[in-house]
Specification:
- This protein has 17 helices and no strands.
- It has about 325 residues and is an all-alpha fold.
- It is globular and about 55 Å long.
- The chain has one domain (about 1-180, about 190-320).
- Helix 1 (about 1-35) runs parallel beside helix 4 (about 70-80), helix 7 crosses helix 15 (about 270-280) and helix 11 (about 190-220) runs antiparallel to helix 16.
- The relative contact order is 0.14.
- It is a multi-pass membrane protein.
- One of its GO terms (cellular component) is plasma membrane.
- It is found in: Cell membrane.
- Belongs to the UPF0718 family.
């Protein structure tokens, strides 16, 4: 019995990992190209820092790039490390998994007879990305970003944009001092260095992805799904159950619509929408990747904010359609 359970968990782990790896590779390749071709600092700082226009610009970038929740993290991290305004990078990070063309096409293919879902999913995903980005913008970089990312970002901030302590320059009691000399500008012009940096990033992100897939696989094969779907027609409980299922099952956003199609008739419309907008942003598989962008407190905040917003979107949908 235990051996069968382990074999099942191993099969689920392989499916999750093999499904996510191509998109992680796409994200790392895009991040490497961004690092090589875009001069860090001045160019990316020209992106809007406006609380609304910034996330909208990032969301538009997410629409143009085929990056799901595994591929958008390395791209967003590179944008932040190179000096991009926080709202633009956050708009891309949270909107790309729902707004990219592959996800939109798969949603249309899975639900051609439910036109409301074809506009409700991208609209709700965009609204969630905008609200979370606005809330994060109210905080200082050092309060939400991972320490390593803050130090990388500090190299590309203009003088006077923050204190030396915030830049972690190592002059005022920084716990992790950084050398005073700036990296050579030739670094961005060398394919060799860019590729080596990308390979290092791939190894780190892949190790986190493996951990997330392992946790998701164990929970998938341990938690019974019957009790989640048993409350499928309860207006609020159905939403909470499908939100939990989205986090645990950790399926890629490019194919989650086909999974949702299997139980769409058993749950409320709001629960279906909550499943399709929360899973691409927050799941067990992607939490480890978020650790390269956010500090722990910010990850908790992002998880709670996305959960509350998905619940509200689901409740509003049920109010209108039931």
């Amino acid at each position: 019995m235990v051996l069968d359970h382990l074999f099942t968990s191993w099969s689920v782990f392989q499916a999750l990992f093999l499904e996510a790896v191509p998109f992680l590779l796409i994200g790392v390749v895009l991040a490497t190209m961004t690092r090589h071709w875009l001069p860090p600092g001045p160019v990316l700082r020209c992106l809007p820092d406006h609380p609304l226009l910034g996330p909208l610009t990032g969301a538009a970038m997410g629409f143009a790039l085929p990056a799901c929740e595994c591929g958008n993290v390395p791209v967003a991290r590179q944008l932040l490390a190179s000096g991009s305004p926080l709202p633009t990078a956050m708009g891309f990070l949270f909107a790309a998994p729902v707004l990219n063309p592959i996800v939109l096409a798969s949603t249309w293919a899975a639900f051609p007879d439910q036109p409301w879902l074809l506009w409700a999913r991208p609209a709700a995903g965009l609204a969630m990305a905008l609200l979370v980005a606005v809330l994060l913008r109210l905080q200082q970089d050092g309060a939400i970003l991972a320490p390593n990312l803050v130090r990388e970002r500090g190299f590309h901030q203009p003088a006077g944009a923050g204190s030396l302590l915030e830049h972690s320059a190592g002059l005022i009691g920084s716990a992790h001092p950084v050398p005073m000399s700036l990296p050579s500008t030739e670094r961005g012009k060398s394919w060799r260095l860019s590729v080596l940096h990308g390979m290092d990033e791939l190894v780190k992100l892949a190790s986190l992805l493996i951990l997330g897939c392992a946790v998701a696989a164990l929970l998938q094969t341990t938690l019974p799904r019957d009790w989640l779907l048993a409350v499928g027609q309860a207006p609020t409980l159905s939403i909470l159950a499908l939100m939990l299922l989205a986090v645990v099952i950790s399926v890629c956003s490019s194919v989650d619509a086909f999974l949702a199609l299997g139980f769409a008739s058993q749950v409320t419309p709001g629960a279906l929408l909550a499943f399709l907008i929360l899973g691409p942003v927050i799941d067990l598989k992607s939490l480890g990747l978020y650790g390269t962008v956010f500090c722990r407190s910010a990850m908790v905040f992002v998880g709670l904010a996305c959960g509350v917003l998905a619940l509200l979107a689901g409740q509003w949908t049920n109010f209108l359609m039931l």
